[in-house]
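Q: Please design a sequence for this.
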């Protein structure tokens, strides 16, 4: 079947509007957006693919993940920078500057709420209900946990508790499926353990549980390393290294009672995978800082 892409120009503002008639065309446009680093548009096309019907392919779900991770990632980075500046200005007693900075931080938080709410709606309404394989179920529930965690990062009071509870439930659902349907060396199962442990450490302030989860995942994977498939070896060993790095960071922080240092040096978590043309397991990108 030939896919059609229609290009329509608006006489008012010379805007080029692309309309497509198939998911393959929308996926192609999403790839173009990725290459051009236009991630907001990439999200739009992949949302349309998700709503067409049927379960997404490995490549499609990776594209969706990459799109949202970049859109939310820039805002998370901005929030961290602005929050740091706000704290410095507060320590100086610069009330006028603090007021301006706080207003700007709240603006970023509204954007984060919008993006996270958007992806959570897509997951609940289009992706999780259509997930058929254990791999896709784990992927989407993990993703749901991640975006509730992002909300919990800046929320306070009841909203933080609500986001943390939702994140924990999603991670737990993903873990229940992963432990029965994915091997301990599977990259998605390892990525889940990595991010779930970061959740325990950063959001629930539970370093003991974070270390236990990370160590258990690492040890389970080590025990079955000989059976690791060649195509996922690189991905799995990379995430195992991130698990070990976090364990080193967390145990060092606890041992030296350097809690402030642990917070400043953000633990690494699995980033969105880079889409693969061959339908291979996703390749984790560079860890977040």
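A: Design:
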């Amino acid at each position: 079947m030939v896919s059609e892409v229609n290009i329509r120009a608006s006489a008012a503002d010379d805007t080029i509007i692309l309309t497509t008639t198939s998911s393959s065309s929308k996926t192609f446009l999403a790839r173009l957006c990725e290459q051009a680093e236009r991630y907001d548009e990439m999200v739009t096309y992949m949302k349309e693919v998700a709503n067409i019907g049927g379960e997404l392919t490995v490549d499609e779900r990776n594209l969706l993940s990459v799109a949202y991770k970049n859109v939310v990632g820039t805002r998370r980075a901005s929030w961290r920078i602005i929050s740091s500046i706000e704290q410095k200005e507060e320590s100086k007693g610069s009330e006028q500057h603090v007021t301006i900075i706080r207003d700007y931080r709240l603006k970023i938080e509204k954007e984060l709420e919008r993006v996270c709410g958007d992806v959570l709606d897509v997951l609940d309404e289009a992706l999780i209900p259509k997930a058929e394989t254990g791999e896709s179920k784990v992927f989407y529930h993990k993703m749901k946990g991640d975006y509730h965690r992002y909300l919990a990062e800046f929320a306070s009071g009841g909203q933080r508790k609500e986001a943390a509870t939702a994140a924990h439930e999603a991670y737990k659902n993903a873990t229940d499926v992963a432990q029965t349907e994915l091997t301990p060396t599977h990259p998605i199962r390892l990525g889940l353990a990595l991010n779930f442990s970061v959740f325990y450490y950063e959001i629930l302030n539970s370093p003991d549980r974070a270390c236990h989860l990370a160590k258990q995942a690492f040890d389970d994977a080590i025990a079955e390393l000989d059976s690791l498939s060649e195509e996922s070896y690189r991905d799995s060993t990379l995430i195992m290294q991130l698990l070990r790095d976090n364990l080193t960071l967390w145990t060092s922080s606890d041992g030296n009672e350097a809690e402030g240092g642990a917070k400043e040096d953000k633990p690494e978590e699995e980033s969105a995978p880079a889409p693969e043309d061959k339908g291979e397991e996703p390749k984790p990108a560079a860890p977040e800082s």
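Q: Thanks. Anything notable?
A: The chain is about 70% helix and 5% strand. The two ends are 44 Å apart (CA to CA).
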